[in-house]
Write a structure and sequence with these properties.
By secondary structure, this protein is mostly helical. The chain has one domain (37-174, 235-385). 67% of the residues lie in helices and 1% in strands. It has 18 helices and two strands. It has helices spanning 4-34, 39-51, 56-65, 69-92, 108-116, 120-139, 142-145, 152-175, 187-206, 209-213, 215-229, 236-239, 259-287, 293-312, 322-330, 340-354, 356-365, 371-381, and strands spanning 101-103, 318-320. A two-stranded antiparallel sheet has the order 1-2. It is globular. Mean pLDDT is 76; it is low at 1-31 and 364-405.
Length: 405
């Protein structure tokens, strides 16, 4: 009996040591994977680019306002370069999570309303001031003390509502417009949309290895190829247009503060902050880590700085994208704990900024073909609106629910 007691005491210690060794090995493997640029990571990065809505919001907003091509191109340029740079900096220096930055859909309606009223300068000023306010809150660490305001149920509902707000537009693109529109429910459009959606679901749920990891990219390529086969794309407008373009400083005019415009923009910025916190939390949970206060402070500071710069060159607020985090879960990319694909995506965005005048033309000419991408966007939003039920002992002061479980 005397010999059994030490054995009973040392066994848990052995288990703990083994568990710690295993966790260390996993962390080291993840760290090693982060430093490698492989063909697989390059394809995963391209997949992140295509799944994100970085191009969608500026094209949608500019089209709804009726901006001339020069200002439309400038808005796309601004969004692409800021999204790319902030994605790169966030992934490597600040929040250090595999998240993609892009224009916040929370601002689409406000930007359209301001644009149609001829108040884009006031809109830009409102975004700039809102960004500076939150940047100061982050730099002074006050934002850490305010995290209790962003309870799990609040952040979860915000992300859910953002997805719902996009569903109408996405469904319209999926079907080829609204009832009564020319081309609505056209057989070719439905074929492209449905086949792309089915491919995403089947490959992501039942595929193995590379097929599962690249399920979205494969579906997008197949959908686009099908649209080309149907003659639904026209590139003739691209050849005569310039390929290079950079955003201009304050293209809508100088600073113009309007309190009536500032208030709703500030509220929208709060929504974007809550959305970003939810994305941070989801990314850490997928990777099996814990979100630190430092990550929150640095991440939100990076987003605020990026949004401020974007407002000065004709863009609008950028934030972390939920659908790209959903991609980590659906394709099992998050298990590798690598940020290389997201870093590659950031580089692609910056490169596309230089050629986005032509890109804008391609996007417009592929407006029908890109319904295949939007079709997959419906699926990519699905994982973002599932929330883990609150369990006994959950910390309600945490920034977000445990999504994607």
């Amino acid at each position: 009996m005397a010999n059994e007691k030490p054995s009973t005491q040392t066994q848990p210690h052995g288990d703990a040591a083994t568990r710690k060794k295993t966790e260390t090995s996993v962390a080291e493997a993840g760290s090693s994977a982060e430093k490698k640029v492989t063909p697989k990571n390059a394809l995963l990065g391209l997949q992140h680019v295509l799944v994100s809505n970085v191009w969608l919001d500026p094209v949608f907003v500019a089209g709804a306002i009726g901006l001339p091509l020069a200002l439309s191109s400038n808005m796309v340029n601004a969004i692409f370069i800021v999204s790319g740079l902030v994605t790169l900096i966030q992934a490597t220096k600040l929040v250090r999570l595999p998240i993609v930055q892009g224009p916040s859909a929370a601002f689409d309606a406000l930007m359209i309303a301001a644009g149609t009223a001829g108040s884009l300068a006031a809109a830009g000023t409102s975004i700039f001031i809102s960004s500076l306010i939150f940047l100061v809150l982050c730099l002074t660490r006050v934002i850490e003390k305010l995290r209790f305001l962003f309870a799990p149920i609040v952040s979860g509902v915000i992300i859910f509502l953002v997805g719902v707000s996009l569903s109408g537009f996405t469904l319209s693109e999926f079907l080829g417009g609204a009832p009564g529109d020319k081309g609505f429910a056209d057989p070719k459009t439905l074929a492209v949309s449905i086949i792309t959606c089915v491919l995403v679901v089947v490959l992501s749920q039942f595929g193995k290895g590379m097929v599962k990891a690249l399920s979205y990219l494969i579906a997008l390529v197949m959908g686009t190829a099908l649209s080309l086969a149907f003659g639904m794309a026209d590139f003739s407008a691209v050849a005569s247009k310039p390929w290079l373009g950079l955003p201009k400083f304050m293209p809508y005019g100088g600073f113009d503060f309007n309190a009536a415009i500032f208030v709703p923009f500030f509220i929208a910025y709060l929504v974007a902050i809550m959305e970003a916190l939810g994305v941070y939390q989801a990314a850490t949970e997928i990777q099996g880590t814990k979100l630190q206060d430092r990550q929150v402070r640095y991440g939100l500071a990076g987003e605020a700085a990026g949004s401020a710069i974007s407002s000065l060159i004709g863009g609008f607020t950028t934030t972390a994208y939920p659908q790209n985090v959903a991609l980590l879960k659906v394709t099992d990319e998050g298990k590798t704990r690598t940020r290389v694909p997201v870093i590659i995506a950031g580089v692609v965005f910056v490169v596309l900024d230089d050629v986005s005048v032509a890109v804008l033309r391609v996007i417009m000419s592929l407006s029908i073909a890109l319904r295949s991408r939007l079709a997959s966007a419906v699926v990519s939003w699905v994982p973002n609106v599932w929330f883990r039920p609150l369990a006994e002992g959950d910390d309600l002061s945490a920034p977000c629910v445990g999504m994607l479980k």
